[in-house]
Amino acid sequence: MKKLLHTLLLAFLFSSVAIAQNGIISGKVTDEIGLGLPGATVFISALNKGGVTDVNGNYTLIEIPVGDHNVTVSYVGYKKVEQVMTVVVGQTTVVNVAMEPGYTQTGEVMVIGDRLKGQAKALNQQRTNANITNVVSADQVGRFPDANIGDALKRIPGITIQNDQGEARNIIIRGLAPQLNSVTLNGERIPSAEGDNRNVQLDLIPADMIQTIQVNKAVLPDMDADAIGGSVNLVTRSEPTGKRLSGTLASGYNFLSNKPIWTGSLIASDRFAQGKLGAVLSLSYNNHNFGSDDIEAVWVEGDDGKAYIDEFDIREYRVQRVRRSANLALDYKINKNNKIFLSGVYNWRDDWENRFRMRVSQLEDAFNDGDFTTSGANNYNTTKARVEFQTKGGIGSDRVDNRRLEDQRNRNLSLRGEHQLDRLKITWSGTYAKASEERPNERYVSFRSKDQNVNVDLRNPRFPLAILANPSDNLGIEFNELSEQNGYTSDEDFNSKVDFTLPVSDKSIVKFGARLRTKTKERKNNFFAYEPTDEDAFGATIGDIPNENYSDSDFMPGSQFRAGVFGTPGFLGAIDLNNASLFDKEDVLGEYLPGNYNATESIYAGYAMADLTLTDELSGIVGLRLESTSIDYSGYILDVDNDTYSQTQASQDYTNFMPGVHLNYNFSDYSILRFAYTNTIARPNYYDLVPYAEFSPDDEELTRGNPNLKATTSTNLDLMYENYFQSIGLVSGGVFYKDVNNFIYSQRTEGYNDPQFGSDLEYTTFQNGGTAEIYGLEVSFQRQIWKGLGLYLNYTLTQSSTTGIQGRESDDLALPGTAENMFNASLSYETEKLVLRASLNFASDYIDELGGESFEDRYYDKQTFLDLNGSYAFNKNWRFFFEVNNLTNQPLRYYQGISSRTMQAEYYNVRFNAGLKFDLFNN
User: Does residue 152 contact residue 146 with C-beta atoms inside 8 Å?
Assistant: First the structure.
């Protein structure tokens, strides 16, 4: 590396002689209040030379001849600026440009409001990017039109979102499951606190902290290649131009929990030390009491060929979620050509949860043995069912407060630099990031009895029901189990990279660099079961302990779903489990040890690419990326019969060469045809590689890891046409194709016989398939159609096929995660002060998990969301805003085999939020 740097520096010294009659122009393009404009075009027509501003509005033009030059700055939705810039020999001339919003339509200058200003930033970045992207930008006052990152993403063509507890959590891009996509923060991969996978929970990061969302659907050679579906880059605020103080204070209402929502944020920024030092501090807080009403069923095929349920749950969740986030970004201008940046991001989310679960099980045996009576078609009664009432909570002291606490945190600290050495630009960065999830003193108490009298109603399989025939039997259900567990998962990254950019001629730029990513991930859980020394004194039945009826006549799936009577969270939290005279304690290895593991991963990457101007209209990027991966992992294998365990270790090493070609043909400044050929990778989840066996005797469920899993690779082709309008609009259409090899799928089999753990189990494992083909089209329309009235439409059609799925070779199976149809529509009205928007989002159903046969396949059902939001500006500094989400009361629904057969239906109801936003500028 020292020799390489020495050679490069000598080359620059000699090249500086050749360019002695040239200079550099740099600066920042801002809007009327001093905020940077990303994606602005800065062009010198006499030299046929120009550049594009970065995400903060900065630009640099090198090798500009000495003298005066007429420079044109253009930006969709803003008035064009022409300015004379003077270049001094061997020096960098700094020229900042301020632009005014507005465009001319039918001879009239149209004024644009806050939403359109944010939309203009997104479209300009998308237009000037070298690759196929979609961009969502915060509006002019720094607030996304959606409440969280996931809600903003789901409106982008080709993207659908998986929800959890009513909030967008996991992203699917062009039919590729969450683990096949990447989420980065300022270009650095965000570590995952998920124990089983690499997914990043989007509901951990509040939208208030993010300035821009970039979705790269065709990655460049200088980007990390672990993005088969695509890469989502979250960009935080940085490099202020002057003093700014803004904030949000809001409250709302959740119509399921009937409790308030509290939200606050603050942004403060300024420049110090004669403008050399910039600082941006962003703070965010959200406190939301919510919940969900949930029913779940496991369907089986009886001996008579009919579909029955073996297990049925009624679940009521009560949740409080508190998010706090902080971001400090510093930049220091050493001189005109050298800058360094230091940024730190801290996200902290607490989820306190109580869950009350009524479960009816062992119904399959009753149906197959004929132990039931009927009272009409698909309406049954049996006295052979097992019924359980379980309360989830936590210890009653400290922060846990009688509830299960899930404490998730994500930290990111990054130091980077930018250096312009004559023609050569060097950028570098070093990043430390850590994600963690801690679940302390999580407690469960369950009461369970067999041979219970139960009614089973399958007349409407969309709303199956199994419930005690006599509600009074609830109080007589007997004590079953009392447990406490602690969970901890961490994912720690150290990343570094260096990039060199060097113009070779007026029509070609060479860029090359290296990257190192190191990761350590571990999960450390435990589980203890407690047996009362005197069960009668503890409480032999539910009726003997403090209890409460959690049945709700307004239960979202229907009033017939009565959860029943449970032990209270206060009772569970107050139990003194450390009192050996009251409880016998057992360390239950089978409940947690197979889930514990440790993994280390190192990725060494290098790339080289050439940015070529082939003609006045045609440009391209050609490059090659190399990534070498080394993974070491260890886990545990449990001998259930002897209650002993052994540690197992394994490793994987592999290297991938990934060429890429990107071509852009510009019919005009606003009309572009793009083509991309790329190669990408998705590495297996660490936990899936561990050769563990996780067995639940009560649920008769067995899951095994697979140490032979291979990384998934994909060859991708994209063709996209984009036409932009100066009136802030876009018409685009394109097609895409992905040839995926060794895709990984989860396979679930009912009635599995295992030589170690027994027979008639529900068995899940992970396999490599053969190949999968994904192909589709995307179309988008975005335009102001008449005097403040705007229309936004996009549609994505996705098709897929697979080969090599074990036991299903003759079935025509789609790739799990592929939603065939995705549609977004938004109608907006905007004046200088008022903004109103109604948004519709639809995604069709798709297969989520493969079973041993089609009857067992699990599908994620179609979903339709309708949201409203708006704002009114009292003046340039103060405005009122509101948001209404999920007006359709869209549930999270899974079905098994056929769409009428519900596996899960979880409802969240509507939520409303409103408040004030202030922005004070002094640029």
Answer: yes
Which residues have a Cβ under 8 Å from the Cβ of 389 and sit 6 or more positions away?
356, 357, 358, 359, 446, 447, 448, 474, 477, 542, 564, 565, 566, 567
Of 480, 577, 588, 569, which is closest to residue 529 (Cα–Cα)? 588
pTM of the model: 0.90
Q: 184 has which bridge partners?
A: 189, 233
Q: Using CA atoms, how far apart are residues 342 and 303, in angstroms rounded to an integer?
A: 66
Of the candidates 256, 8, 234, 69, the one whose C-alpha atom is nearest the C-alpha of residue 138 is: 234
Distance, in Å, from the CA atom of 323 to the CA atom of 208, rounded to the nearest integer, reads: 11
Contacts of 726 (CB under 8 A, 6+ apart): 76, 77, 103, 104, 670
DSSP-assigned letter for residue 200: -
Banded pLDDT at 482 (limits 50, 70, 90): very high
Asked whether 153 and 794 are in contact (CB, 8 A), the reply is no
102: left (phi over 0), alpha (psi -120 to 50) or beta: left
DSSP code, position 176:
B
Per-residue pLDDT tens for 142-155?
A: 555 565 687 778 77
DSSP codes of every residue in 491-539: EEEEEEEEEEEEEEETTEEEEEEEEEEEEEEEE--EEEEEEESSHHHH-
CB 914 within 8 A of CB 883: yes
What value does the mean pLDDT of the chain take?
A: 90
| CB atoms inside a 10 Å sphere around CB 870 | 20
Rounded to the nearest 5°, which phi and psi values hold at 853? Answer: -150, 170
What letter represents residue 803's amino acid?
T
Give one word for 726, left, alpha or beta, with left for phi > 0 and alpha for psi -120 to 50.
alpha
Q: 206 CB contacts (<8 Å, ≥6 apart)? A: 148, 149, 265, 284, 286, 323, 325, 347
755: Cβ contacts below 8 Å, ≥ 6 apart: none
Q: How many whole angstroms separate alpha carbon 269 and alpha carbon 245?
A: 7
| Residue 434 structure tokens | 């850590």
pLDDT tens per residue, range 806-835: 888 888 899 888 889 999 999 999 888 898
487, 334 Cβ separation under 8 angstroms = no
By the 8 A CB rule, do 182 and 232 touch? yes
